[in-house]
Amino acid sequence: MQNASQSVTHVVNSVKNVLEGEFRGISVLGEVTNLSSSASGHFYFTLSDGQSSLSSALFKMDALRNPVIKKIKDGDKVVCHGNLGVYARRGTFQLITKQIEPVGKGDLKASFEKLKKQLAGEGLFDLEVKQKIPDLPQKVAVITALKGAALQDFLNIFKRRSQFMKVMVVPALVQGEAAPKSIRQALHNTIKFHLQAAPGKKIDVIVLTRGGGSLEDLWAFNDEALAWDIFNCPVPTISAIGHQVDFSISDFVADLRAETPSAAAEILTEYQGKALEKLEVLSKHLQNAVELQLNESVQRLSGHHPQVVIDGLYGRLLAVRKRLGQLQLSKRLFELCQFHEKSMRLDEQVKRLDRAVEERVANWSNRLEEANGLLRVMDPHNVLGRGYSFLKDEEGHVIGNLKKFKAISSKSELQLVFKDGIGKVQKLGAS
C-alpha cells in the first residue's frame, strides 16, 4: 500500500520548521563571493570554504547596523552571525545574517572588551576622578596627525568660533604599530611643556583626536599604557576619536569624550560665544542707561536756565499783584486794621523778593558764563591758533580717527581747516 502523498508546501514547511528551529544564533566562517546589493538596501552574497557554499542575506536594517559591509569585497574572509531561514517560494535555505565581521575583528573586539573590563575594575573610568574641562580655556594642545582630516576639522571650527583661545598642535602617528608609542611620547612632551611653562603659558586642555575608521585603524587608542598615561595626566583631557559610533579605551579614560574632532572644538569654544553674546547685551544695556541719564540731566539743566527761573518768578510776582488788585485796599481803608503796617511789610517782602531774584539771576549768570568759558576752551577752532589743523570730509564731517579716514573712498575731496582759512586736498588712494 502506497504512503499518502504530501504537498510540496507541506514538505517545504516541515523542513523550514526543522531548520529554522535548530539553526538559530549560529556563526559561520567563510569567504565572500557573488556580493551584490539591491536598490532597497539589501545585500546578498555567498559564503564558501572551498568545498561547500551557503547563500546569505543581510537585509537593510541589519546592514545599517553593520556599515562594514560597504568595505567588504569578494574574496574577503568574514564571520557571519545569524539564523538559517528557508525561502519557501524557491525551496532554498540561506543564512539570514544579523552581524558580519572581517576575520580578525572578532579577536580585536574580544581584546577590547577584556581590556575595557580590566581598566574599569582598576578605577580608570570612574567619574569621581575625572577633571573638569575649563569653560574658557586659554591654551589647548591637540595631539593628532599633522596632515590628517581630524586636525583640519578641529581648526576650521576653532577659527570660526574662538575669540582668544590658542592652539598648540603636537604631531603624532595615529595608526599602525608605532602609533601607540608615538602618541604616548607626544603626550609626555606636552605634559613636560606644561609643567615647565610660566604660569600664563600653561596648557589648559589636551585633545587627543583622529578621524574615523575601522576597529583596526583606531587600535592605537586602545593601548593599555596610553590609558594609564591619560589617567595620570595632570591636564584635563578630551578624547575625540573617530565618529559618533566609534569608541576607544581613550574615550572612557579621558576626562571628556567628544563624538568627533569638530565636536571637541565646539565644546571648547562654546562658552566663548556665550560670553561674547552676554557682553554685547550688557553693552547695549549700559549704552541705553547712559543715554537715559544724559537725557534726564539735559532736561533738569534746561529747567534751571536763568531765563526760565526769571520767567517763573515774574509770573509769581504778577499773580501776587493781581491778587493785591483784587483786594481793593484803598476802598477798604477804614475796615482794615493797621493797614499801613501791612503795607510796609508787603513792601519789605517785595524788596526781599527782588533781591532774591537778583541773586538767583546773578548766580545763574555766573554759572552760564563759566559754562560758556569752558565751551570756548574746548572749541577746536581755538586750538588752530596754536598751529594745529583738522580734516573734514566732503559733507563737512570731522574725520577724527584713522578708521574713518580709511573708510573714505580714494580721490575724495577733503577740507583741511586752519585758523586763517580752509584748504582743499584729495585722497590719492586707500591707506
SSE layout and pairing:
Elements: H1 8-22, E1 26-37, E2 43-48, E3 53-58, H2 60-65, E4 77-87, E5 92-102, H3 105-121, E6 139-144, H4 149-161, E7 166-171, H5 179-196, E8 205-210, H6 224-231, E9 237-241, H7 249-253, E10 256-257, H8 261-303, H9 306-327, H10 339-378, H11 380-384, E11 390-392, H12 402-407, E12 413-418, E13 421-426
Parallel strand pairs: 3-5, 6-7, 6-8, 8-9, 9-10
Antiparallel strand pairs: 1-2, 1-4, 2-3, 4-5, 11-12, 12-13
Helix pairs in contact: 4-8, 5-6, 9-10
Task: Give a short summary of the structure.
This protein is of the alpha/beta class and 431 residues long.
Descriptive notes:
By secondary structure, this protein is α/β, with parallel strands linked by helices. The chain folds into four domains: 8-103, Nucleic acid-binding proteins (OB fold (Dihydrolipoamide Acetyltransferase, E2P), Beta Barrel); 109-273, 3-Layer(aba) Sandwich (Rossmann fold); 306-378; 382-426, no CATH class. The protein is built from twelve helices and 13 strands. The protein has helices at residues 8-22, 60-65, 105-121, 149-161, 179-196, 224-231, 249-253, 261-303, 306-327, 339-378, 380-384, 402-407; strands at residues 26-37, 43-48, 53-58, 77-87, 92-102, 139-144, 166-171, 205-210, 237-241, 256-257, 390-392, 413-418, 421-426. Strands 1-2-3-5-4 form a five-stranded mixed β-barrel. Strands 7-6-8-9-10 form a five-stranded parallel sheet, with helices on both faces. Strands 11-12-13 form a three-stranded antiparallel sheet, with no helix packed on it. β6 (139-144), α4 (149-161) and β7 (166-171) form a beta-alpha-beta unit. α5 (179-196) packs parallel to α6 (224-231). The radius of gyration is 45 Å and the shape is elongated. The mean pLDDT is 85.
